Amino acid sequence: MNPSADAAPILALRGLRKRFGAVVVADGIDLAVRAGEALGVLGPNGAGKTTLFGMVTGTVRPDAGTVMFEGRDVTALSPARRCRQGMARSFQVPQPFAGLTVFENLVAAASFGAGEGERATYDRCAAILERCGLMARANERAGGLRLLDRKRLELARALATRPKLLLLDEVAGGLTESECAVLVDLVREVRAGGVTVVWIEHVLHALAAVADRVVVLHGGRLIAEGRADEVVRVPAVAEVYMGIPVDA
Amino acid sequence: MSAAPAAPAQVSHGTRASRIGLPLFLLLLVALAAAPWWTDRQGMRLLGEVYAYAALASLWNLLAGYSGLVTVGQQAFVGLGAYVLFSAALLFGVNPLWGIPAAGLLGALAAVPVAALTFRLRGAYFAIGTWVVAEVFRLLAAQFTALGGGSGTSLPASVVASIASGRAAREQLLYWLALGLAVLILAAILLLLRSRHGLALAAIRDNEVAARSCGIEVDRTRLAVFVVASGGAAMVGALIFLQKLRISPDAAFSVNDWTALVIFIAVIGGIGRVEGPLIGTALFFLLRETLSQLGSLYLMVLGAVAIAVMLLAPRGLWGVLADRLGWQVFPLARRLEPRAPPLGTAPPPTTRHALAGADHENRGDTR
User: Fold this and answer.
1) In this entry, which stretches build a coiled coil (chain A) (predicted)?
2) Is residue B4 part of a domain?
């Protein structure tokens, strides 16, 4: 399902700026994500991708600019409130609630993020665990999971909050080909359910399989935009991302 | 919900261990409630002290073990509660029994500004900050000349007599109050941990950033649990000094008595489990009653025990029992039970509904 070009943006960033000391990680970013769209975000390490997610979800306060979610300015809202309004994210380095079981991780996210009574979340959390391949680990402590299962848990916990906008931060990193294919199917399915997806990823073929549009971030600026196969041919992208000089 | 014929998820809170453990624990409570009939005054006093420590250690465990708030200033609220009770009785003529809930209320209220000051600090700085606040409380109490200033004061005989008629009746009443208060505090902690707010506390303890990103209001949740735990500590403090009948700033705000020993109990019993402080209290009193005649050697033994537990069993004694033998007294787990597929059928189809997006019609942040 491709969103029509004139669909209202679910997320609109205007003039986002952020610097850490002398390092500029966002230099006036303008970006609109349409409802139902799947947007890929590419960029070399240090390009400011994760900081961008931080500013969208509220864990990083921008120096300037606004974040609009469903037409409302959410720049001053706490991460928790943004989550309850329908934003969810996964973390690049998995951040499980280590002392809780996998199932409890989801119940916590579902009952607070989606604002449901605890018992009302059980069925949905069980179904998410099943779909994310975590059912066999449901009653294990999340702190003891191996990397693949930690990545799955990141995604599962984000889904438990019933997001309208799902921000994925390198969930495919470190996965094998077949694991990656399963993940791509899963993200497609989530999107087919009406969830808007913004996905930071270095695994280009995974991104290309899901994203309608890809933007490339470098030095805190968006330097290219288009379909995945198009943007990688943009000379400036080839230079910063692949290390190939433009005038070579 | 989808029409998929998946059976509802079965979640159990108890285990076989808790189905045995909980009735045994309740039997123990009944036996303890009957203590006035099977022990003497000395025994009741000792048990009263046990209950006070079990309650304080449980409250400290709620803060440190479940919420990540490692406080070294619990004595601030123990002392405050004691001073509220003495002030109410001596200055306003209030029956000292009413002083206990009053102490709880004022302790909870006082926790709000204390939190405003100390919650800016993290980790070790928070621990030291709470200790400093407790010292300030102690110094302020020493300025309180109406209650004897630095040397303290005693409850006059008339006030003591107003608690109950006769010494035996008074000691029985205070014994039951101590047991009742400990049970009340334990029950409140269990209810809290059984609710989704218990999950929120553990989530905050484990990962604050992820907790915020999952919709959990970290600051509000922490404040709420700090306020409740402080109110509880103040009530325990009021009751402890009602039993002692005498108060002084050094005794009421003693970091050794009301925090260091409490931390010792929680550490040897097991932090982050409700059973830990209870078993730790039993162990501490066992050590104290058998070794206290050794003088300062007794303290060295306590120190050695604490070091040994931290090195050999960092999850405490109950942690070892729970991990190795699956022991559990209170049904606090949330175990997702495997679903039995219907006989003769394929596994249920993928439950897509779970992954579908938000219900855009019915969703809205009304919180």
Assistant:
1) none
2) no
Q: Is B270 part of a structural domain of the chain?
A: no
- The domain in which residue B64 lies consists of 39-254
Q: Six-digit token pair at B50? A: 């046990």
Residue A102, classified by CB atoms within 10 Å of its CB into exposed (0-12), middle (13-18) or buried (19+), is buried
Q: A1-86+163-248 — its CATH code? A: 3.40.50.300
- Tell me: the pLDDT tens digits for A88-116? 999 999 999 998 999 999 999 999 999 88
Question: Taking the domains of chain A in order of start, what are their residue ranges?
Answer: 1-86+163-248, 99-162
Report d(CA A142, CA A105) in Å as an integer.
Answer: 8
Nearest to A84 among B205, B352, B367 (CB): B367
- Mean pLDDT in residue range B49-68: 95
Mutate to test the interface with B, among A111, A166, A168, A198 (most CBs of B within 10 A): A111
pLDDT in tens, A177-188: 888 888 899 999
**Structural domain count of chain B:** 1
pLDDT greater than 60 at residue B3: no
Quote the CA–CA distance of B141 and B80 in Å, as a whole number.
Answer: 9
Q: How far, in Å, are A101, A215, B176 from residue B199 at the CA level?
A: 10, 38, 32
Query: What is the nearest CA distance from A80 to chain B, expressed in angstroms?
Result: 4
Kindly provide the ipTM of the predicted complex, given to two decimals.
Answer: 0.90
Element (H, E) at A32: strand A23-34
Question: Which residues of chain B lie closer than 8 angstroms to A159, CB-CB?
Answer: 354-355
pLDDT at A202 over 90: no
